[in-house]
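Homework-ish question, so no full write-ups if that breaks the rules, but can someone show me the predicted structure for this set?
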Amino acid sequence: MKVLVAIKRVVDYNVKVRVKADNSGVDLANVKMSMNPFCEIAVEEAVRLKEKGVATEIVVVAVGPATAQEQLRTALALGADRAILVEAADELNSLAVAKALKAVVDKEQPQLVILGKQAIDSDNNQTGQMLAALTGFAQGTFASKVEVAGDKLNVTREIDGGLQTVALNLPAIVTTDLRLNEPRYASLPNIMKAKKKPLETVTPDALGVTLASTNKTIKVEAPAARSAGIKVKSVAELVEKLKNEAKVI
Amino acid sequence: MTILVVAEHENGAVAPATLNTVAAAAKIGGDIHVLVAGASVGGVAEAAAKIAGVAKVLVADNAAYAHALPENVAPLIVELAKGYSHVLAPATTNGKNILPRVAALLDVDQISEIVSVEAADTFKRPIYAGNAIATVQSSASVKVITVRTTGFDAVAAEGGSAAVEAVAAAHNAGISAFVGEELAKSDRPELTAAKIVVSGGRGMGNGDNFKHLYALADKLGAAVGASRAAVDAGFVPNDMQVGQTGKIVAPQLYIAVGISGAIQHLAGMKDSKVIVAINKDEEAPIFQVADYGLVADLFEAVPELEKLV
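A: Not a homework solution, just the prediction itself:
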């Protein structure tokens, strides 16, 4: 089967971001960017499906700025066969991304689409579900295990109280949770080979997609800072403070 | 303005997250209707009708809605949504699973995990693992929103007397099926609703050592959480994870034991009223957010703490 994987370029997860002084957003100038960690897990899962002989081709797609080519090349180095960049402004809303991905799905006709469960910048957790709605496919969100069984897909999902397993008709959408797999690192020879793999760039216009949004960010602020705490010297002092000062036990 | 709240329920009872979501709806203002969708949910609907501030309860009782499969529940909500100004659900795994599907079918953007209501169309939500707070305005005809339950104080579960109305609509997409579930069993309070949370990290060393935390938690009537490091190391199951990608908690007291305090963990607990950190590394970032820090070996400090409380 053909597998489509959507990835996003985001601020590296180790970076502590700063809010801009004019409250228009967070300062992304000269900040290290990487592939969103959940997207790495999505790429890894597709590569493992290919290694098992289940997937025949892996197409990786990003919707975003031209610089997202770096992350697409990373995905190619990890084992994806070819890449598509839908070149658009940065910071699109999830519905716009889902619409662009729907157009790519229509063109590529994959049997399985894998996305991360959320991007660590917007923390939306929407795109996979929205793509499932637009395509009419079944969705297996927060997946910790994915098994192809004939014409069905068994997905074990991480839910609030534990784990749930659902069976989905193919084609289907899966979004990855942290424990689905441990992503591999790209080897140097594979990074070199990835430079020769095909990377196609398209515009939303060419796909017939409009990226209008019903949400507008008015302001971005730093969260309220916690007042500095104190260090206690002993457990007895800690218990005394909790009982008499904070009055929480 | 009329607001539809999608109820979270389990084992025939209304989940506490529903009460926080109704509280968010009350902040927006207008009539509040609650949708209870599921199989054999008559009892849940009766309980939902007693929630303070609820004007009407809609019950969609159909086998297709069992286990809240989004392929079946989303079209139901879409059909009902046309008459509402807002559709709200708690940001639980169910709410996060279903609501974006609803939003896309309505062709509107969703606002995820709001922590405050500024106006009927303007909301605040954390981004970048809680390192920034965005104020977002929606121009959508139906505003589709998930509510971070720790951002709103629960309304009373009793005192209301809403009318209960059955919804006949039956949507069964037939493209997904429930196979089974494995729920973690626990006698302790639920993590997201507990007043006190005791969490362990990689410093616990192994799963067996969590017994020290369980003993302390039982004495305090607390829930037990964990950092991602502890979950990934296999010490405890993943539904105990607190953080950006796990559960978001805001208890009265949060005790972090053997947790360094990575950005991703802080995202899940930094709104706690009082934070206590017990760590032997005095440079650990957790001490920067802790109200009370104790630099000590947790294997000595935790049993002593258990004795003294």
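Now go work out the reasoning yourself. Hint: Chain A touches chain B through 78 residues (CB under 8 Å).
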